[in-house]
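[agent] plan:
  1. take the single chain provided in the ticket
  2. run structure prediction with default settings
  3. attach structure tokens to the ticket
  4. add a short note for the reviewer (M.T.)
[agent] executing step 1
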Amino acid sequence: MGISLYYWTDMPNFGDRLNEDVCRFLSGSDPVWASPKRCNAAFIGSILEKFIYRRKRWTADALWIKYFRSKVDVWGSGFIKDPESSDERLMRRLNIRAVRGRVTLERLRGLTGLDLDDVAVGDPGLLASKIYPAKSQAFRVCGIIPHHAELAAIKRSDDMVALESERGILQDSTLKAMPLFERLAKSIPGAVVLNPESPPKTVIGRISECEAVLSSAMHGLIVADSFGIPNMRVIASESLMGGDYKFRDYYSAFSKNKYRAVNIREDVSAGLLETVKNAFEDLPGEVVKIQDSLIRSFPKVRNQ
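[agent] step 2 finished; step 3 output follows
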């Protein structure tokens, strides 16, 4: 049956949809979406909470799912927030091939009782530059990427949604309803605001055109790291579930703490772009090692 993959599909978001592109790149086939109870794989995304059993007592159905369904291949996934209790239990058996970061790795060690020393560490979004190599030298000053939840609240016509999805760039009429991002873009002459709802190929292509990236969406930062583009997280709201958790997890895969953030609800410094470039630590050797370890650890296609 190939890869029956669980990933987040509630709203269009290039980071989650990148699962499909990665599967095609590494396995040569398209995945089939499946629920956490039925899937045989979980790859990109903060999705591992979906494999936590929440009830105090096991039901017969839950025990059957856990012990008689095949293991779930975990490859590059992570959690989205701190544990809700100290007695978490997994509802599925996991074959852990890779995890997003060391925060997730330590948590899975506690949940499984395994040492997991041979597990690869890194987000598969770092493979973006291999899947869609840059076609030209960077010619845009800066790409700004809102989180998909920050864009979802904006009312747009169907024609505008289609136009922005195709181009990968948000138009002025949309930005007027996103004053923080509009102000940020105006403070950096030549900056464009990218559309996180566009297909992964489009968004990745746009990111590769940029000399720097400011992103509220974590996979905007990850893709920028894949290309070695200076980047920094922007904080535009407190609406992201889990706060800094997934960011801390992602950056824990590197030997140095690369995490930097700027709160754009406060006054944006005129020298922000220079700050981004000066503060950025490009670790190309580490990125290549993570890419290689992810490719080596990709699970073989198997029947469910």
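[agent] step 4 note for reviewer: The longest strand covers residues 72-77.
[agent] ticket updated
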